[in-house]
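ok posting inputs for the guanosine-5'-diphosphate job
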Amino acid sequence: MSAEKKSRTGKVIMVTGGSGLVGKAIERVSKEDQRPDETWVFLSSKDGDLRSKEETAALFEKYQPTHVIHLAAMVGGLFANLSHNLDFWRTNIKINDNVLQTAYETGVKKVVSCLSTCIFPDKTTYPIDETMIHNGPPHDSNFGYSYAKRSIDIQNRGYHAQYGCQFTAVIPTNVFGQWDNFNLQDGHVIPGLMHKVYQAKRDGTPLTIWGTGKPLRQFIYSYDLARLFVWVLREYEEIAPIILSVGEEDEVSIKECAEHVVEAFDFKGEVVYDTTKSDGQYKKTASNAKLRSYLPDFKFTPIKQALKETVAWFEANYDIARK
Ligand code: NAP
Ligand code: GDP
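and the output
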């Protein structure tokens, strides 16, 4: 660790993947809830390619972080995962190993990485909780991403056991919000549906929902996730990960979710289902009991309001949105 970093009392918080859906929301929260002892740095892939150990080391050298929020990853929805399992594995393993090892080598005090509820075993009991990550194979559709993400938990335990590092992780459910990836092939279901409704409304064509609409999901608004992420960075002291999710009672079907998106756009056209497309995992219902034991009063934004805010952003920023 540099002498400058050892003597510094304030935190330098470096956010990898700071230009994406979750990173932009954390940037918003860091500005709304400013602390005098915190300096935030938000990175994109343009600042450096984290698949490269040299470029990763150069970023740590340049910014001298005391804390890291590690978001950078190859991320995609069901259909991107189905066709690119190997790329998801290789890319994410490299990025994660470079970031965690460099954080260790440079004496970073705390790292909070990001897992996902889609990495849990496919055959399981419900609700899923934090203790079940390694209990069995993940769903076939995203095995590459899942095993790469599970390895972060292995590394966090290893860095703590061998070197006493405070490296931990959060486990969010399916995230949506401003600055999402609205690409129809690569993205997740909510930005995909928003883009499709936008086009259907503009062109007077039907909205096509992929699959049967029956699968169940707990969605979290990126702004809510960001407020929780910042709390984890500042307050959470366990190495074991924590699920960041709305309650089990807030789980919705893809069909219900699509109906909310249709309502938010005030779309009046025809809605059809393409059942030749995969449904993916039927459900991954997660327990937020651990989160509630820490933050019993945390208020999630109601899903309809969060979807309306996201639709308003997408319509206003259609030209610059990732799509
Ligand atoms: P995102 O919008 O796709 O953002 C990905 C970020 O990673 C971008 O800032 C991107 O930089 C950066 N990045 C990608 N490859 C990189 C590389 N080789 N070197 C440096 N930076 C790189 O993803 P997100 O949805 O915000 O996801 C953030 C984290 O949350 C990820 O770890 C993801 O696994 C996790 N997560 C997401 C969801 C979800 O539903 N979205 C659910 C659970 C967990 P550029 O902008 O320059 O490309
Ligand atoms: P997952 O939650 O990790 O499975 O990933 P997604 O966010 O991609 O959600 C996939 C679920 O939404 C599956 O049941 C899909 O059949 C369904 N779905 C319906 N329409 C779309 C769409 O336009 N894009 C995506 N990605 N999924 C869709």
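notes: The longest strand covers residues 166-172. The CA atoms of residues 48 and 55 lie 6 Å apart.
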